[in-house]
Structure formats: C-alpha cells, structure tokens
Design a protein that fits this description.
Length: about 200
C-alpha cells in the first residue's frame, strides 16, 4: 500500500493506524499547495480532490477520506482491535466519534490554517474548537482512550488534531482529561514512529 501524505496534516492519522496495524506500506510525500509529488508528478491524477490522505491499494485502487481509510486499515487486522467488530454496537460508537471529529473538530480547525483569514475570524473558529475539545475532555473522564481502555483509529485522528492545537498555542490546561490523554497517546511507540518518519517534533 501507498500512503499519500503531507507532514503533520490529517494524513498523520492513517499513518499512525498503519504502524499500529503493523502493515507494510510506502510513504509518498505530497506538496498540497502545488498538488505535486516529490518526483514532480501531478497529484491530481492520483486523487482528483487534491487532498491528503489517499491510500493506494495493492490492486491499484485509491481510497480517500481519512475516517474511511483508517477503518479499512483496522479491518485488515481485526486481531489488533483498532476498531470494534463490524455491525457491533461499539463499532457504531467508533463511527460516532469519527464523524464528530471530522465534521465538528477537523472542519473548525481548517480555517485557522488559512493565511487570508483575519484574526477575528480565526478567534471565532478557535472558540468553536475549544468548545468541542471541552466536550471531548468531559467524555474522557475515567477513560484511557475515546473507546475506553482500548486504543482505536479514532485516537490517532484526535491526536493528530491535538498536535495542531499545540502548533496554534492552544491552552488546554483547563482540560486535565484531554491533557493526560494527549500525553498517553504521544507515548505510544508507533505514534512516535509516525511523528519521526514525518519529520515532526515529538508532541509534548
């Protein structure tokens, strides 16, 4: 498999999933702004959406959208328990988390990366994200991970966005559950391996 990624982007989530799953893969770096691969090829020919992540399967198919990719990875190695069994009530809870993270948290972070956005607009989106993170903090009470004791692909996704919060100097000190969670996920060897392979500083 080939993971098309940009360092520190949301493609970090499937990168973590691939490592946690112990699946063989090749990393292909993408210049998102130029829509080019490192060798100069047109990335739009791989993924016409022009976004990362994209996962190239061994049969030549391309799968896009992070929440779908991470589930596909998890389902390839059910023994790793990166996602609950399909059709189980717990699987729908995972889907609930993945949908919340992608539609409520991820999409509120996005505008803050836009250079053209003024400070007032960025402050609006920051407040929105902080509200979502406070909800997550409350849901993490008494839990090691989003699904309880078991690390899942949703945790790789949330952790990715918490690295963005770091870069944007968010103060999470009033969210002790989330802060402890972030440190717990960061301490996982496969998470550190993903950060190292993407040339990112270790999460605090």
């Amino acid at each position: 498999m080939k993971l098309y990624y940009a360092p520190g982007a949301c493609s970090l989530s499937p990168h973590i999933a691939l490592l946690e799953a112990d699946l063989p893969y090749e990393l292909v770096k993408v210049d998102i702004r130029a829509k080019k691969l490192e060798n100069g090829d047109d990335y739009l020919k791989v993924n016409p959406k022009g976004q990362v992540p994209a996962l190239g399967l061994d049969n030549g198919e391309i799968v896009t959208e992070g929440p779908v990719i991470v589930q596909m990875i998890a389902d390839k190695v059910p023994a790793k328990a990166l996602a609950p069994a399909r059709d189980s009530s717990e699987r729908y809870k995972l889907l609930e988390w993945l949908n919340f993270l992608t539609s409520e948290v991820h999409k509120s972070f996005g505008p803050m990366f836009a250079p053209a956005l003024n400070d007032d607009a960025k402050a609006f989106f920051k407040d929105r994200v902080m509200g979502k993170l406070k909800h997550i903090d409350s849901q993490l009470a008494g839990k090691d991970y989003l699904m309880g004791k078991q690390f899942s692909v949703a945790d790789g996704y949330l952790f990715t966005m918490l690295t963005w919060a770091d870069r944007m100097k968010f103060d999470l000190s009033a969210m002790p559950n989330l802060s402890a969670y972030k440190a717990r996920v960061a301490a996982r060897p496969k998470v550190q391996e993903a950060l190292t392979k993407e040339g990112l500083a270790q999460a605090k």
